[in-house]
Amino acid sequence: MLADSHAFAGFSTNDIAKARQFYAETLGLDVTDANGALNVHFAGGGMTLIYPKPNHVPASFTVLNFPVDDVAAAVDALTAAGVHFERYEGLEQDDRGIMHGPGPTIAWFTDPAGNILSVLEG
Fold first, then answer.
1. How many angstroms separate the CA atoms of 31 and 63, rounded?
2. Whole-prediction pTM value?
3. What residues in the chain have per-residue pLDDT under 70?
């Protein structure tokens, strides 16, 4: 029934202006306005809707993953753009916040509303 639908995910923010600046300027993504919300467009045609929510509470899990060829290079570039990478207790991460297994090499960061994002090799 939905096999041909162009589905998309969405999550909330408490400040659309800060979200727009972060996703468009800091991350360099294509961001368009959508009736008071934002559409963030990705390579390959996918998108995510970011919508305002006054009582926003960020999820305790990763809401958006960015596959990259080289996590270390992505972390360096994002750090230079002002992004801070998270360190989580109980995970073996290097001094830049990169976890090298088990699983994919990955590093987590948050947007201005506290939503958890990642860059991972993939």
1. 17
2. 0.93
3. none
